[in-house]
Amino acid sequence: MVAGAVTRQVGNLPADLTSFVGRRRELAEIRRLLSASRLVTLTGVGGVGKTRLALRAAAEQRRAFDGVWLVDLSTVGDPGLVAETVAATMGVRDEAADCPLDALERVLASQRTLLVLDNCEHLRDACAVLADRLLRAAPELRILATSRQSLGITGEHRMKISPLPVPEPDRPLDRRSLELYDGVSLLTERAAAVLPGFTVTEDNQAAVAELCRQLDGIPLAIELAAVRLRALSVKALVERLRDRYRLLTGGSSTAVPRQQTLHALVDWSFQLLPAAERTLWTRLSIFPSHFDLDAVEEVCTGDGIERDDVLDLLDALLDKSLLLREEHWGSVRYRMLDTLREFCRKRLGGPAERRSLRRRHRDRYLLLARRAADEWFGPDQLAWLRLLDLEQANLRAAMDFCLQEPGEAETGLWMALYLTDPCWLANAYYNEGRHWLDRMLWAAPAPTVLRARALCADAELVLTQGDTARGRLLLAESRALAERLGDPEALAQTSLVAGLAEHYAGDYARAVPLLERAVEEEEAVGNLSGLLIALITLAAGVGYLGDRARATELFERALALTEAHSECSGRAWVFTIFAVHLWQGGENDRALAMAREALLLGRELGDRMNIATNLSVLAWVQACEGRHAHAARLLAASEEIGRRVGLVPSRDKRFAEFHERCLTELRTNLGDRGLNRETRRGQRLTTDEIIEEALGVRAEGGPGRPDETTAEAGPTRPATAVSAAEPSPLTRREREIADQVAQGRSNKEIASALVISQRTVEGHVEHILDKLGFASRAQIAAWVAAREAGGRP
């Protein structure tokens, strides 16, 4: 007969031995899914905290069930013992039954039960059969499973568990912002348990953020790292994480063996993989960041992996939570956590296989860079900008291979040259471009046409940043080599950059002849991008010398060139410089309209240099129109963005004069105190906010009149005093993002939905928290809900 012990017990959930950190959104989603579905499977990479989350969710649901049972399958190796293990855990024994499944069906049919099946990945088929039979037999049964991959049965809801949020790299942090990340909170709590008094301070906050980033936000890795803080400082631990699998040991002695060290945990997943999946997974470690399907097919196939099998293998690795799927600009990409990548790299076949994969990886991204250069001047500029931005880590790795591998430096120099226009100049990545060109030029010193062109490209980047002396030296070397070799393309390029150098210096009498020659030479060699730059700069120089009619003709020729080829990056610059020309001629309305058109294009392209320049131009025009407070904010924001991209205000002599003249006028009309006040306000605005203000969308003093409010805003009132009838203290973009936060979306999800960068979203969230006086996203959600309901938070 069936033992009656079941009716006297309500389950076997263990008590928490440590605090549970974060995961509020995930717990809420599990509650929702369990109310709508009878089988919910939590999937995710090993160590991400699936078991702990399932236990917390089950504990919160305890009162809704007659019994809540945890069945740990991690030590069960025989699929035939799955049902027996469940029955034994629940205390179900029926000597009359042919199999334990029959007894379980009878017991569960009369109860409202929540069954937690933990660690199903190595017994997936057996767990699927068990779950299917029990759910059919017991209408009040709910199953919460944890596995690296879903069970794959009808009615199952899969919930992907991601690592804990950690700070993004290169982002300014303070103690308050760090506390918003669950990964940091977990490290702090676990570290304090082994090192009483541990806390995040100004001295260690950067190291704490970096540690959590390097550990990918994986809870197990963070907990193992916290144990090491008994003997090491946070900074020392970060430095030693290069060998994380050796270092991160010493977990709880009561944990199953595979969870006591990070290496054992990942190796558990590795050993469960079929041979083809193992092979592809290890080869994928050659990618330093995310990648797409085409890249995998080109780099990782052969020797046992057929091209036609790649998609199915990737899908299998995704299902086992060994890869992450991401969407960027509507395209699907894949990513491996750093922790897993390091493990896989150690499983590659040896130096020969690694070198072969790196060469194929380099060849893939060399071809990509060449295509970007060939197709840059045309209708696909935005697509190329986005793609090259996504592939930045892969491009860097490819160039790094060229520097490390003997005999590959010249190929690396070609790659750096290809990327100059579509990547470094277009994105204002001047320091990045100089870094790679300088290193490649040093590694490939042969006096070739390639070197002449690369020296000239380097000179253009250097001059753009205002380093005139260094730029002229590079240009002189390039010109001498180009003349010696007689290369028309290199000669045309040096004529153009020489004209730019004189133009920036304000010597227009010398610049104009050089630029006229550049126009002829660039047109002759078919370099349309160089031709456009020459036309724009020549038009500006001719205008400065007083020939306004010819300048207008040249600007219109430049616009016609961009229209003929559906080009938009250079078109933005034509509008920008043409606006300056119109402003100088007293045509302020046309100048304003044209600079705003340029700003729209610059924003769409993400061209930070163009954005900064247009904000300056708009400031000059607005100052002439008497909108001094507005002009001061625009000018301050322009300087702030310029500093971020490494621009020197005095780079262009005439622009520097306009800048100083505008500052003098603003100081005269606003006074030092008023100018300083508006400067601070401009510096505090995000790029999106200042663009909205420049376009007349964001009006602090009322619609269309952003210049009338010159007094500083007082402190924002607490949210409890804000009703739906009162105006929101947030900008339109901030309100959009607050609404997304209220819907429970992550920063990455918001960025994808609004088609902006994740870093931009993070900046907006920080501004929202500051303006509302909040410390958490939950408070933002409550504030939004209260305004929508017309009440008070």
Automatic annotation (TrEMBL):
Entries under PROSITE patterns matching the protein: HTH_LUXR_1, HTH_LUXR_2
The organism's place on the tree of life at top rank: Bacteria
Coiled-coil region: none
Membrane-crossing residue ranges in chain numbering: none
UniProt-listed Pfam families: GerE, HTH_77, NB-ARC
Alphabetical list of SUPFAM superfamilies matching this protein: C-terminal effector domain of the bipartite response regulators, P-loop containing nucleoside triphosphate hydrolases, TPR-like
Residue ranges constituting the HTH luxR-type domain according to the UniProt record: 723-788
Region (Disordered): 699-731
Name the record gives this protein: LuxR C-terminal-related transcriptional regulator
Lineage, uppermost ranks: Bacteria, Bacillati, Actinomycetota, Actinomycetes, Streptosporangiales
